[in-house]
């Protein structure tokens, strides 16, 4: 079978084409099929860039939705949602890509080239992982980069965008390629396609890109984390960067309204609320300690002590159960009502409550465990039911 001509390589802005079906095969998993064409505007998944979406229209007007595209041995197979009998080899089809989807990928991919090139220039960082996700571009670098370094690189990358320099595609000869310094993640056989962004990057790439850097719009690093000796970046470009900025502004407005603070004072207001929360938490700890002491004093030596206190977190449950064991050698349990039932902590001085906890979980749809002397978890029953169960086990 002849190889598919890739119309997107010389012109990434081409959205439609007239083609001929080379082969068609059903896809039993999806109920649709796969169609190979002699030429296509659809980019296949590869190199970190998702495949194009769009439609194929048959001569009788039947429209097939293209959901995925993959390349095998130089032939591009288009996954479609249906495979009518009229879709046979030799049939003419009209292809049309989802342009909004394609242009988004072009912005992300070109922005990735710019930022990767800048990081390589500034820090000698290699791009060792790249994927255009549904929300952001994931980039992995080979070396660690500080927050200050990333800010500087982000600014330098956006300066390339503002300069609106052309994105150049070339196919150098072997001799020219041997003399060229360029980025590549793997050894490439045959003709190499080089994408050059003056001042930023020279890279071997088969993806689709904007005509100029200005069409990228903006490059924004949303997050970074240490990853395998380097950093993993979450990056958005173009329309995604605008949406991210609008979302951040909306969140800031919500925070400002809640804290009665102006946009440039939200951080100060958050620090103030955090300090107040910390002070209240310290006070709450002390009040709970007094309450736990009082509840423990109600238990006589050797008596069981089962206490229900609303609003306790797991740490509070544990503290109460331990305090009860200091007052009695009987069975001790701290309970608190939750949205789904009851949080519990069961303990006994010099005892083993694991079997009891297992029985409780089985009887009241619970989960939890621990050490012989103390077990903690939650169950789907009300505190009154838990207390009744524990007293029945005496």
UniProtKB/TrEMBL annotation:
Co-factor(s): Zn(2+)
Alphabetical list of SMART domains matching this protein: tRNA_SAD
Name of the featured protein: Alanyl-tRNA editing protein
Keywords: Metal-binding, Zinc
Organism this protein belongs to: Faecalibacterium wellingii
UniProt keyword annotation of Zinc present: yes
Zinc is among the record's keywords: yes
Ranges that cross the membrane: none
Main location: cytoplasm
Domain Alanyl-transfer RNA synthetases family profile: 1-247
Subcellular location: Cytoplasm
InterPro entries recorded: Ala-tRNA-synth_IIc_core (IPR018165), Ala-tRNA-synth_IIc_N (IPR018164), Alanyl-tRNA_Editing_Enzymes (IPR051335), Thr/Ala-tRNA-synth_IIc_edit (IPR018163), Transl_B-barrel_sf (IPR009000), tRNA_SAD (IPR012947)
């Amino acid at each position: 079978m002849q190889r598919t001509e890739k119309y997107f390589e010389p012109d990434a802005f081409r959205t439609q084409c007239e083609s001929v079906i080379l082969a068609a095969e059903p896809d039993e998993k999806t109920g649709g099929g796969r169609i190979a064409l002699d030429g296509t505007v659809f980019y296949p998944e590869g190199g970190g860039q998702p495949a194009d979406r769009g439609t194929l229209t048959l001569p009788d007007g039947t429209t097939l939705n293209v959901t995925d595209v993959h390349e095998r041995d130089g032939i591009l197979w288009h996954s479609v949602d249906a495979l009518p009998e009229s879709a046979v080899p030799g049939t003419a089809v009209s292809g049309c890509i989802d342009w909004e989807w394609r242009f988004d990928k072009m912005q992300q991919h070109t922005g990735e080239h710019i930022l990767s090139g800048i990081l390589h220039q500034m820090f000698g960082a290699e791009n060792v992982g790249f994927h255009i996700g549904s929300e952001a571009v994931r980039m992995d670098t080979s070396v660690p980069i500080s927050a200050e370094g990333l800010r500087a690189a982000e600014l330098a990358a956006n300066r390339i965008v503002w300069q609106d320099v052309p994105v150049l595609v070339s196919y150098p000869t072997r001799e020219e390629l041997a003399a060229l310094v360029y980025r590549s993640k793997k050894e490439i056989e045959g003709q190499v396609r080089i994408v050059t962004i003056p001042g930023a990057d020279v890279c071997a790439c088969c993806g689709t890109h904007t005509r100029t850097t200005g069409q990228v719009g903006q490059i924004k690093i949303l997050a970074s984390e240490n990853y395998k000796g380097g950093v993993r970046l979450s990056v958005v470009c173009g329309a995604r960067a605008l949406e991210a900025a609008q979302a951040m502004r909306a969140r800031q407005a919500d925070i400002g309204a809640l804290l009665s603070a102006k946009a440039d004072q939200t951080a100060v207001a958050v620090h103030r609320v955090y300090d107040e929360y910390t002070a209240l938490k310290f006070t709450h700890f002390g009040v709970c300690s007094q309450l736990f002491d009082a509840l423990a004093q109600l238990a006589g030596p050797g008596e069981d002590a089962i206490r229900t206190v609303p609003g306790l977190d797991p740490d509070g449950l544990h503290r109460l159960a331990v305090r009860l064991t200091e007052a009695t050698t009987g069975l001790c349990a701290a309970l608190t009502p939750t949205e789904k039932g009851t949080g519990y902590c069961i303990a006994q001085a010099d005892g083993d409550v694991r079997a009891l906890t297992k029985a409780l979980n089985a009887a009241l749809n619970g989960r939890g465990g621990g050490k012989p002397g103390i077990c903690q978890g939650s169950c789907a029953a009300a505190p009154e039911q838990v207390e009744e169960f524990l007293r029945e086990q005496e």
